[in-house]
Amino acid sequence: MFQKFLGGKTAIVTGSNSGIGLGVAHRLAMAGADIVLNSFTDRDEDHALAESLAREHGVAVRYIGADMSKGDECRALIERAGRCDILVNNAGIQHVAPIPDFPAEKWDAIIAINLSSAFHTTAAALPLMRAAGWGRIVNIASAHGLTASAFKSAYVAAKHGIIGLSKVTALETAREPITCNAVCPGYVLTPLVEAQIPDTMKEYGMDRDEVIQKVMLERQPSKEFVTVEQLGDTTAFLCSDAAAQITGTTISVDGGWTAM
Ligand code: NAD
């Protein structure tokens, strides 16, 4: 699995200075791909992260700051990278509230970052993939792209949307050596999940442990969090030759959540 089968390829991973995106970047770098890391910040520590990933895996790694809530910055990210063989649309945020109390600006931000960004990056990346004669697009959706939970209207809508976008992208590239799929993780204990624990405690009147056991892992029959390494491996598999005919579909990595 971790031979350098992606040597010579460049992978752009949006929202990759933490969590799943960083885990995916590590696995693709381990497989030999040059990496473009991204988030909306442009700090010394972001560039230091790129340097340490490059040292660890012996590949070229750049950090390019671009705000995935803005369509023009999404497209500029791909243009500045100059090459995009693998595009992982991963940037995402969450907000938890009942619909009547859900702030409209949070709805707009979630739809922009979790869904529209993938439209813009895909639009900019496809011409580069076509010119190179090969491409892989992996959209990090969610179990919430296939099922719903109360209080997550914008997130569930965006994640269902990105699965639809993945299918259309796959159909438009079906006759080319380009694939597009959506990975649907269950709960992974990243900063995004940590951040929703306080609001969920409030909504359900529970303490932290109860939220983890009764709300989060309640949905996950394995009773274990998914790891970023497992999602990195799944993404690397989708970039391998074995997955050349896998396109327009979803792969659940959710401990059995969507089997229920
Ligand atoms: P995280 O908060 O650790 O990472 C999110 C990343 O997106 C960070 O690098 C952050 O800087 C970046 N980001 C946020 N806003 C951005 C913006 N405007 N522009 C560019 N980058 C931005 O969260 P995570 O859990 O690693 O989430 C990554 C993806 O995985 C998201 O799409 C999320 O919906 C999805 N996901 C997460 C889980 C989970 O349980 N953690 C489950 C299913 C799906």
Automatic annotation (TrEMBL):
Q: Which GO terms describe its biological process?
A: monocarboxylic acid metabolic process
> InterPro entries of this UniProt entry?
3-OHbutyrate_DH (IPR011294), NAD(P)-bd_dom_sf (IPR036291), Sc_DH/Rdtase_CS (IPR020904), SDR (IPR050259), SDR_fam (IPR002347)
Molecular function as annotated in GO = 3-hydroxybutyrate dehydrogenase activity
Q: Which UniProt keywords apply?
A: Oxidoreductase
What Enzyme Commission number(s) appear in the record? 1.1.1.30
The EC category is oxidoreductase
* The family this protein is said to belong to: Belongs to the short-chain dehydrogenases/reductases (SDR) family.
Task: State what protein this is by name.
Answer: D-beta-hydroxybutyrate dehydrogenase
Record organism: Paracoccus haematequi
